[in-house]
User: Fold this.
Amino acid sequence: MLSPADSPAPEWLVVPDDVNDLATAVWPASAARDGDGVLTLAGIPATSLAQTYGTPLLVIDEDQVRDRARAFRSAFDRAAGENGTTAQVYYAGKAFLCTSVARWVVDEGLCIDVCTGGELEVALAAGVAPASLGFHGNNKSVAELERAVEVGIGTIIVDSAIEIERLAAIVARTDSVQRVLVRVISGVHAETHEFLATAHEDQKFGFPLAEAEEAVARIREIDGLDFAGLHCHIGSQIFGVAGFRESASRVLELHASLLEGGPVPSLNLGGGFGIAYTRVDDPTPIETLAAEIVSAVAEGCAARGIPMPALSFEPGRAIVGAAGVTLYEVGTTKDVELGSGMVRRYLSVDGGMSDNARPALYGAQFSARLASRSGIGAPQLSRVVGKHCESGDIVVEHEYLPDDVAPGDLLAVPSTGAYCASLASNYNHVPRPPIVAVRDGRSTVIVRGESIADILSRDAGIPSADAERL
Ligand SMILES: *Cc1c(COP(=O)(O)O)cnc(C)c1O
Assistant:
């Protein structure tokens, strides 16, 4: 008998009663199975999507993105209103930005955060009003800052003393006034169920609390800079409220002391709201998080006798994560004997770490289901792997899939809307997949897939005659 510690399956992985079920938290609300057992997304069979666009394919459920954007906005509007202030929600574009997604979230009343010149140009190309953009980053170049100031970006979140001087020169040269926040590190780092609170943080972003006062004093001396408050982002994939609470309390201490030198109208508490990647993940509903975080700030302000600032938040993953489903075709299968009669089945698919780097990069867990039909076999412990030349090229490390999954079947991996397309690469010269939006039974390409010709087009060593033949 194997003890749980020896088991090849992790303790959290439960054998499903129904190996074809779609656990609600990890799938877009529109995911279902049709009468033939085929997975459908917004009413479209996965088999038709694969036939039309090929695999791998990233499918984004537009209504899911819009619903999440609206849910965040209304949860923070309500919580702020009940505490005598206002709240703005910035979609953190780094989770997944293209012009369509930018338009959807702006349409639902969100602003957008960008953190490079490239993300800024995508948001501008989408027609987003520059005033509703925030600009992050620990190493914004002079050219990036000039472009941001020139287009009239709403807020620049300054990250270093060097950046303050760069901005001072730009606003002087262009005779403009730029709203800025100062990014601080509170010493609180949160992830899922834990948070770590230290006095010093060994990381590249922002000003330590002890140095921020001097930075703000310098900003207040510069005519073209309008100091609007502090910014703090404590981590990612956070399920609870305790880390936000501790961090807000530390930042409010500084906020209160800055009020002695002038106005501090706002406070931005960043993003990091977690989502479910597997059926055992249990993120706190956003309505609860919003109410608890905002009331923690209100209590902190009341205790210090200071007014409630206008609040901002920056969810990325929680807006787009659950809207994405990646479809792959199974190419080969392989059984590995693990001893004591246990077998792990490797299912190799036609993508991998080039379209989803999260497992290789962070050991992230995902789940998977057979999509082209319902399986008839018993649950088989399986590992979905990619086609790259790395043994760490894993898409889903641990999952039970029907034991009749075979080459030619389609697998669907849910919760791939955030940090998959945005982290995609051409590793092994694998073209990046197309991205298709689905809504009300219709599908639209929102990001074209790459071709081998795209990849070869960057290789300057190919004689042009050969390049034309390709
Ligand atoms: C990454 C990031 C976010 C978004 O994080 P999520 O985990 O996707 O919500 C928000 N703000 C800043 C400053 C970030 O770096």
